[in-house]
Amino acid sequence: MSGPTTGAGGVGRRPIILDCDPGLDDAFAILLAAASPAIDLRAITTVAGNHTVDRMTLNARRICTVAGIRGVPIAQGCDRPLVRAQIVGSDIHGESGLDGPAFGPPVVDVDPRHAVDLIVELIMAAGEPMTLVAIGPLTNVATALRREPRLASRLREISLMGGAWGLGNRTPAAEFNIVVDPEAARIVFESGVPLTMCGLELTHQVIATPDIIGRVAGLGTAVGDMCAAMLRFYGDTTSRRRRSFGPALHDPTAVAWLIDPTMFEAEPMHVDIETSAEFSYGRTLVDVDDVLGLPKNATVPTRIDAMRFWDLLLDALATYR
Ligand code: RIB
Ligand code: CA
What we know:
Elements: E1 14-20, H1 24-35, E2 39-46, H2 53-67, E3 74-76, H3 90-93, H4 115-125, E4 130-134, H5 139-147, H6 151-154, E5 155-161, H7 176-180, H8 182-189, E6 195-198, H9 200-203, H10 210-217, H11 222-238, H12 252-259, E7 264-269, E8 271-273, E9 284-286, E10 298-304, H13 306-317
Parallel strand pairs: 1-2, 1-4, 2-3, 4-5, 5-6
Antiparallel strand pairs: 7-10, 8-9
Helix pairs in contact: 1-12, 1-13, 4-5, 5-8, 10-11
The structure holds alpha-D-ribofuranose and calcium ion.
């Protein structure tokens, strides 16, 4: 279980906090961020999403244990959405929220601070503007922005996975991360913080094909075995959908954007979040053609060079021994 220790920081690395709901694809985002020489992973915070927040926290500890990621605080966050009733994603991620691999007991502890407190503390104390990577529901992020109004001006960017301009994946109208907590998403999208929205039209361009799964399994390491088992489980659950895209690695795109934005094409767009409609509750209304002429509150990557993405991710996974 050796692997890159991280949290050490370093000149030129971009300081980030990764807020997540691990979650099969979240796991790859954690591994990519912790291994990248371009990223200084200052903390992992968990939020209720793919499953209950206690399971999300246990899974973050499991992933860091197997990968040998040490020195990065893991703090547990909000256990329910701001307003609506909680929903989970166990149909895709399983009852543990990270089904597929068999895990032993984690050796990485939980930080005693609440995730929202840790987010505020680290960002306000940082010597330079930090970046929040949000790859689960936005409950923690919205709560932090409300808790500390100065936070927005201290953030360089929020790079998030969520939303879609077309069909959703949790309802016909809405993508999972947004519809789990639409009110939180609205707070974040109206915060004025520079926002990058990696939505489904982007993330469905990076599907873990059998060839990719074979490359991951071929690493022959504990991390490779864990990732291959996750992808196989994820491929099975996603194959049950009528529009079976296969195991899309949604979340690591929000990290890859920070590491190498040249592998993306992106446009500034105006995005609103529906919080009052009955059937389209949680929809991201993305003004792709700028018909409204409203201020552009998000950068929306529309294309990714999938080959370069997979090479980046596989190279990162190969750094774990
Ligand atoms: O819609 C995909 C998103 O929902 C991903 O972040 C996945 O982990 C789930 O949380
Ligand atoms: Ca997620």
